[in-house]
Amino acid sequence: xxxxxxxxxxxxxxxxxxxxxxxxxxxxxxxxxxxxxxxxxxxxxxxxxxxxxxxxxxxxxxxxxxxxxxxxxxxxxxxxxxxxxxxxxxxxxxxxxxxxxxxxxxxxxxxxxxxxxxxxxxxxxxxxxxxxxxxxxxxxxxxxxxxxxxxxxxxxxxxxxxxxxxxxxxxxxxxxxxxxxxxxxxxxxxxxxxxxxxxxxxxxxxxxxxxxxxxxxxxxxxxxxxxxxxxxxxxxxxxxxxxxxxxxx
Length: 249
Prior knowledge:
Structural class: alpha/beta
CATH superfamily of the largest domain: Response regulator
Strand order of the largest sheet: 2-1-3-4-5
CATH architecture of the largest domain: 3-Layer(aba) Sandwich
Number of domains: 2
Largest sheet: 5 strands, parallel
CATH topology of the largest domain: Rossmann fold
Helix content: 25-40%
Radius of gyration: 18 Å
Order of helices and strands: EHEHEHEHEHEEEEHEHHEE
Mean pLDDT: 83
Low-confidence stretches: 1-8
CATH class of the largest domain: Alpha Beta
Protein backbone atom coordinates (compact mmCIF):
# COMPACT_ATOMS: atom_id res chain seq x y z
CA UNK A 1 0.00 0.00 0.00
CA UNK A 2 1.25 3.49 -0.80
CA UNK A 3 1.85 5.80 2.15
CA UNK A 4 -0.13 8.41 0.24
CA UNK A 5 -3.13 6.33 -0.79
CA UNK A 6 -5.59 4.18 1.11
CA UNK A 7 -5.60 0.41 1.71
CA UNK A 8 -7.62 -0.06 -1.48
CA UNK A 9 -6.54 2.94 -3.54
CA UNK A 10 -2.91 4.03 -3.89
CA UNK A 11 -2.25 7.55 -5.08
CA UNK A 12 -3.34 7.96 -8.71
CA UNK A 13 -0.72 9.75 -10.82
CA UNK A 14 -1.39 10.88 -14.39
CA UNK A 15 1.87 11.20 -16.33
CA UNK A 16 1.46 13.36 -19.45
CA UNK A 17 4.43 13.17 -21.82
CA UNK A 18 4.69 12.38 -25.53
CA UNK A 19 8.16 10.86 -25.06
CA UNK A 20 7.54 7.14 -24.36
CA UNK A 21 10.98 6.68 -22.80
CA UNK A 22 10.47 9.48 -20.29
CA UNK A 23 6.94 8.28 -19.52
CA UNK A 24 8.13 4.70 -18.98
CA UNK A 25 10.99 5.69 -16.67
CA UNK A 26 8.85 8.10 -14.65
CA UNK A 27 6.00 5.59 -14.44
CA UNK A 28 8.23 2.75 -13.28
CA UNK A 29 9.80 4.84 -10.51
CA UNK A 30 6.39 6.05 -9.30
CA UNK A 31 4.97 2.53 -9.35
CA UNK A 32 7.92 1.33 -7.26
CA UNK A 33 7.01 4.09 -4.80
CA UNK A 34 3.54 2.55 -4.50
CA UNK A 35 1.58 4.82 -6.84
CA UNK A 36 -0.95 3.85 -9.48
CA UNK A 37 0.22 5.39 -12.78
CA UNK A 38 -1.67 6.21 -15.95
CA UNK A 39 0.03 7.61 -19.06
CA UNK A 40 -1.39 10.18 -21.49
CA UNK A 41 0.43 10.89 -24.76
CA UNK A 42 -0.84 14.44 -25.34
CA UNK A 43 -2.96 17.20 -23.85
CA UNK A 44 -6.28 16.04 -25.29
CA UNK A 45 -5.65 12.49 -24.07
CA UNK A 46 -4.77 13.85 -20.62
CA UNK A 47 -8.05 15.77 -20.30
CA UNK A 48 -10.07 12.73 -21.40
CA UNK A 49 -8.30 10.44 -18.93
CA UNK A 50 -8.70 12.97 -16.11
CA UNK A 51 -12.42 13.21 -16.90
CA UNK A 52 -12.81 9.43 -16.64
CA UNK A 53 -10.72 9.03 -13.49
CA UNK A 54 -9.64 12.12 -11.63
CA UNK A 55 -5.98 11.85 -10.56
CA UNK A 56 -4.47 12.70 -7.20
CA UNK A 57 -1.57 14.42 -8.97
CA UNK A 58 -0.49 15.19 -12.54
CA UNK A 59 3.09 15.05 -13.84
CA UNK A 60 2.75 17.26 -16.91
CA UNK A 61 5.23 17.95 -19.71
CA UNK A 62 5.23 21.58 -20.83
CA UNK A 63 5.93 20.79 -24.48
CA UNK A 64 3.13 18.62 -25.88
CA UNK A 65 1.68 18.20 -29.37
CA UNK A 66 -1.66 19.96 -29.81
CA UNK A 67 -2.63 21.40 -26.44
CA UNK A 68 0.53 22.35 -24.60
CA UNK A 69 1.11 21.76 -20.92
CA UNK A 70 0.14 25.29 -19.92
CA UNK A 71 -3.29 24.99 -21.53
CA UNK A 72 -3.81 21.52 -20.06
CA UNK A 73 -2.96 22.89 -16.61
CA UNK A 74 -5.40 25.80 -17.07
CA UNK A 75 -8.23 23.48 -18.11
CA UNK A 76 -7.62 21.04 -15.28
CA UNK A 77 -7.54 23.85 -12.74
CA UNK A 78 -10.72 25.34 -14.16
CA UNK A 79 -12.55 22.13 -13.38
CA UNK A 80 -11.28 21.41 -9.85
CA UNK A 81 -8.08 21.62 -7.80
CA UNK A 82 -5.38 19.06 -8.57
CA UNK A 83 -1.66 19.20 -7.73
CA UNK A 84 0.52 19.57 -10.84
CA UNK A 85 4.26 19.04 -11.23
CA UNK A 86 5.43 20.37 -14.58
CA UNK A 87 8.27 18.92 -16.66
CA UNK A 88 10.15 21.21 -19.01
CA UNK A 89 13.16 20.84 -21.27
CA UNK A 90 13.45 24.60 -21.58
CA UNK A 91 16.14 26.46 -19.70
CA UNK A 92 14.44 29.82 -19.91
CA UNK A 93 13.23 31.02 -16.51
CA UNK A 94 10.21 32.74 -18.08
CA UNK A 95 8.80 29.37 -19.15
CA UNK A 96 9.15 27.94 -15.65
CA UNK A 97 7.56 31.02 -14.11
CA UNK A 98 4.67 30.87 -16.60
CA UNK A 99 4.04 27.28 -15.54
CA UNK A 100 3.88 28.31 -11.88
CA UNK A 101 1.63 31.26 -12.71
CA UNK A 102 -1.00 29.05 -14.37
CA UNK A 103 -1.17 26.92 -11.24
CA UNK A 104 1.62 24.32 -11.26
CA UNK A 105 2.72 23.44 -7.73
CA UNK A 106 6.28 22.59 -8.72
CA UNK A 107 8.42 21.91 -11.78
CA UNK A 108 11.39 19.76 -12.75
CA UNK A 109 13.70 20.67 -15.63
CA UNK A 110 14.80 17.96 -18.07
CA UNK A 111 17.09 16.11 -17.87
CA UNK A 112 16.12 15.25 -14.31
CA UNK A 113 16.71 12.53 -11.76
CA UNK A 114 13.66 10.22 -11.56
CA UNK A 115 14.35 9.82 -7.84
CA UNK A 116 14.17 13.59 -7.35
CA UNK A 117 10.86 13.67 -9.22
CA UNK A 118 9.49 10.91 -6.98
CA UNK A 119 10.56 12.87 -3.90
CA UNK A 120 8.78 15.96 -5.20
CA UNK A 121 5.65 13.94 -5.97
CA UNK A 122 5.72 12.43 -2.49
CA UNK A 123 6.19 15.86 -0.91
CA UNK A 124 3.15 17.31 -2.70
CA UNK A 125 1.02 14.23 -1.99
CA UNK A 126 2.01 14.24 1.66
CA UNK A 127 0.77 17.79 2.10
CA UNK A 128 -2.37 17.13 0.08
CA UNK A 129 -3.30 14.05 2.09
CA UNK A 130 -2.45 15.73 5.40
CA UNK A 131 -4.71 18.65 4.51
CA UNK A 132 -7.59 16.29 3.68
CA UNK A 133 -7.12 13.96 6.66
CA UNK A 134 -9.99 13.72 9.20
CA UNK A 135 -9.27 15.64 12.35
CA UNK A 136 -6.95 18.07 10.61
CA UNK A 137 -8.37 21.02 12.47
CA UNK A 138 -7.06 24.24 13.83
CA UNK A 139 -8.28 27.63 14.97
CA UNK A 140 -9.59 30.11 12.45
CA UNK A 141 -6.90 32.50 11.28
CA UNK A 142 -7.91 36.11 10.69
CA UNK A 143 -6.28 39.29 9.48
CA UNK A 144 -8.43 42.26 8.59
CA UNK A 145 -11.26 40.89 6.46
CA UNK A 146 -9.33 37.74 5.52
CA UNK A 147 -10.30 34.48 7.23
CA UNK A 148 -8.61 31.11 6.79
CA UNK A 149 -10.17 27.90 8.10
CA UNK A 150 -7.53 25.12 8.20
CA UNK A 151 -10.17 22.49 8.97
CA UNK A 152 -12.14 23.03 5.76
CA UNK A 153 -9.27 24.45 3.64
CA UNK A 154 -11.41 27.51 2.90
CA UNK A 155 -10.18 31.09 2.75
CA UNK A 156 -12.42 34.13 2.41
CA UNK A 157 -12.03 37.85 2.11
CA UNK A 158 -14.96 40.07 3.09
CA UNK A 159 -17.11 36.94 3.08
CA UNK A 160 -16.19 35.93 -0.49
CA UNK A 161 -14.33 32.68 -0.99
CA UNK A 162 -10.84 32.92 -2.43
CA UNK A 163 -9.94 30.48 -5.21
CA UNK A 164 -6.53 29.38 -3.95
CA UNK A 165 -4.32 26.52 -5.09
CA UNK A 166 -2.87 24.08 -2.57
CA UNK A 167 0.37 26.03 -2.23
CA UNK A 168 -1.35 29.43 -2.17
CA UNK A 169 -3.59 28.28 0.68
CA UNK A 170 -0.66 26.86 2.65
CA UNK A 171 1.33 30.04 2.07
CA UNK A 172 -1.52 32.28 3.23
CA UNK A 173 -2.13 30.11 6.31
CA UNK A 174 1.57 30.21 7.15
CA UNK A 175 1.62 34.00 6.88
CA UNK A 176 -1.55 34.45 8.96
CA UNK A 177 -0.24 32.14 11.66
CA UNK A 178 2.88 34.31 12.01
CA UNK A 179 1.79 37.94 11.52
CA UNK A 180 4.45 40.64 11.33
CA UNK A 181 7.33 38.15 11.34
CA UNK A 182 9.82 38.39 8.48
CA UNK A 183 10.23 35.19 6.48
CA UNK A 184 13.05 34.48 4.05
CA UNK A 185 12.27 32.67 0.82
CA UNK A 186 14.47 29.81 2.06
CA UNK A 187 12.26 29.50 5.16
CA UNK A 188 9.07 29.56 3.09
CA UNK A 189 10.46 26.93 0.70
CA UNK A 190 11.29 24.72 3.67
CA UNK A 191 8.13 25.23 5.73
CA UNK A 192 5.46 25.57 3.02
CA UNK A 193 6.93 23.42 0.23
CA UNK A 194 8.72 20.98 2.52
CA UNK A 195 12.03 21.35 0.67
CA UNK A 196 15.46 22.24 2.03
CA UNK A 197 16.57 23.21 -1.48
CA UNK A 198 14.97 24.35 -4.71
CA UNK A 199 14.48 27.27 -7.08
CA UNK A 200 13.47 30.21 -4.89
CA UNK A 201 11.66 31.85 -7.82
CA UNK A 202 8.90 29.34 -7.00
CA UNK A 203 8.26 31.26 -3.77
CA UNK A 204 8.41 34.62 -5.55
CA UNK A 205 5.82 33.58 -8.12
CA UNK A 206 3.44 32.16 -5.51
CA UNK A 207 3.70 35.34 -3.44
CA UNK A 208 2.80 37.32 -6.57
CA UNK A 209 -0.15 35.00 -7.29
CA UNK A 210 -1.34 35.27 -3.69
CA UNK A 211 -1.14 39.06 -3.78
CA UNK A 212 -3.24 39.10 -6.95
CA UNK A 213 -6.00 37.29 -5.04
CA UNK A 214 -5.98 39.03 -1.66
CA UNK A 215 -4.75 42.57 -2.27
CA UNK A 216 -6.90 45.48 -3.49
CA UNK A 217 -3.88 46.64 -5.50
CA UNK A 218 -1.14 44.01 -5.86
CA UNK A 219 1.32 46.75 -6.88
CA UNK A 220 0.70 48.42 -3.50
CA UNK A 221 0.34 45.39 -1.21
CA UNK A 222 -1.27 46.04 2.14
CA UNK A 223 -0.83 42.54 3.56
CA UNK A 224 2.15 40.73 2.05
CA UNK A 225 5.05 43.16 2.16
CA UNK A 226 8.51 42.72 0.67
CA UNK A 227 11.34 43.20 3.16
CA UNK A 228 14.17 44.00 0.78
CA UNK A 229 17.25 41.84 1.22
CA UNK A 230 15.40 39.48 3.57
CA UNK A 231 12.06 38.16 2.33
CA UNK A 232 8.41 38.81 3.14
CA UNK A 233 6.26 39.87 6.05
CA UNK A 234 2.50 39.63 6.54
CA UNK A 235 1.21 42.91 8.02
CA UNK A 236 -2.44 42.64 9.13
CA UNK A 237 -2.82 46.37 9.76
CA UNK A 238 -0.31 47.82 7.28
CA UNK A 239 -1.29 50.83 5.16
CA UNK A 240 0.82 49.63 2.23
CA UNK A 241 3.39 51.58 0.21
CA UNK A 242 4.23 51.29 -3.47
CA UNK A 243 6.78 48.54 -4.06
CA UNK A 244 8.05 46.51 -7.00
CA UNK A 245 6.80 42.94 -6.90
CA UNK A 246 10.15 41.43 -7.77
CA UNK A 247 12.31 38.86 -6.07
CA UNK A 248 13.30 39.61 -2.53
CA UNK A 249 17.00 40.38 -2.75
